[in-house]
């Protein structure tokens, strides 16, 4: 009599085990392999390995891979319309630095300004590189301009510094820069000043401090703070100026635009906020361009920047 093998259904525990192992593998892979991105032109794919601290860039059509090792906490930002990657990573001393990698030529380029370049632009003396120094590309403004944020800690010789700049990759030049914590010339801690150079108890701030040409219709916030121990009385009138060829020039208002100059009172330690509408300024004889701007209120002022494009 012929013996026939009996078919046995897989044990439910076997199925649970397989699912468990698959889940562990998927979770582990998704945890280790992070920051998957693809270049806007669809030519390259990137990812990071958190265990080996390696960034991999793969050419999709050919499958060719490039490896960049020893990149801690990497950040990957592709240019909007070219095979240029801003790769930022942390070093062992806590510093963060961006390098530009142009895959059209298959090479890395150190064209982003260094701390020493920034100090020179700010009129500061050159100091040694410190731990936790950060010079990082945080945004592409267009295919040739990037926003770079920078900071480094202070010591007994200099204050800590924090700021941002716009860098032109095609011209290899810093187009605009602003920093807090230092004076552009003296290197001493910066205090609020009037245009005459006197220390001020009134602070003028614009929020956000960086806007883009495509967002000019969105009102900014103009904030006036009273840091003194006395009540401040003023009005709502202010002027808008642009920094052009080494000097500040007033931006003209459109016709029939007026300010409400009713009495304004700011209590000690208080502040007032109202909209700053750039659309009320003359557009026939003046075009907003990327660069430095400031709002002058009474004898005080606060700066902001206009970038290139909106996302």
Q: How many domains, in number, for the residues?
A: 2
User: With helices defined by DSSP (H or I, 4 residues minimum), what is the helix count?
Assistant: 2
| Approximate helicity band | under 10%
CATH fold-level label of the largest domain: Methylamine Dehydrogenase, Chain H
Q: Tell me the number of strands.
A: 22
Features of the shown structure:
311 residues; mainly beta; Methylamine Dehydrogenase, Chain H; Immunoglobulin-like; 2 domains; 8-stranded mixed sheet; 5-stranded mixed sheet; 2 helices; 9% helix
Please characterize this protein's 3D structure:
Helix content is 9%, strand content 41%. It is mainly β. The chain folds into 2 domains: 35-180, YVTN repeat-like/Quinoprotein amine dehydrogenase (Methylamine Dehydrogenase, Chain H), CATH 2.130.10.10; 202-306, Immunoglobulin-like, CATH 2.60.40. The protein starts with 11 loop residues before the first helix and ends in a 5-residue tail after the last strand. The model is unreliable at 181-194 (pLDDT under 50).
């Amino acid at each position: 009599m012929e013996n026939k093998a009996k078919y046995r259904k897989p044990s439910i525990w076997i199925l649970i085990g397989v699912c468990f192992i698959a889940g562990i593998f998927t979770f582990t892979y998704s945890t280790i392999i992070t920051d998957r991105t693809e270049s806007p032109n669809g030519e390259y794919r990137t990812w990071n390995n958190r265990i080996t601290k390696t960034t991999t860039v793969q050419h999709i059509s050919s499958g060719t891979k490039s490896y960049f090792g020893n990149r801690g906490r990497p950040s990957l930002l592709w240019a909007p319309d070219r095979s240029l990657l801003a790769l930022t990573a942390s070093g062992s001393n806590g510093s963060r630095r961006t390098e530009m990698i142009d895959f059209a030529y298959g090479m890395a380029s150190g064209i982003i300004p260094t701390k020493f370049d920034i100090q020179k632009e700010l009129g500061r003396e050159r100091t040694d590189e410190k731990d936790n120094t950060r010079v990082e590309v945080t945004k592409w403004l267009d295919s040739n301009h990037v926003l770079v944020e920078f900071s480094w800690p202070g010591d007994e010789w200099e204050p800590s510094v924090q700021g941002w700049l716009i860098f032109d990759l095609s011209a290899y030049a810093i187009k605009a820069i602003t920093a807090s914590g230092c004076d552009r010339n003296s290197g001493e801690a910066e205090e609020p000043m009037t245009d005459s150079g006197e220390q001020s108890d009134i602070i003028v701030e614009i929020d956000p401090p960086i806007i883009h040409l495509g967002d000019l219709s969105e009102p900014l916030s103009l904030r006036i703070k009273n840091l003194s121990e006395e009540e401040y009385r003023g009005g709502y009138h202010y002027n808008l100026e642009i920094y052009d060829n080494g000097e500040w020039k007033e931006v003209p208002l459109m016709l029939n635009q007026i300010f409400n100059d009713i009495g304004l009172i700011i209590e000690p330690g208080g502040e007032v906020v109202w909209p700053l509408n750039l659309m009320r300024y003359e557009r026939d004889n003046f075009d907003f361009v990327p660069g430095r701007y400031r709002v002058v209120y009474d004898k005080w002022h606060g700066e902001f920047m206009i970038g290139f494009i909106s996302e």
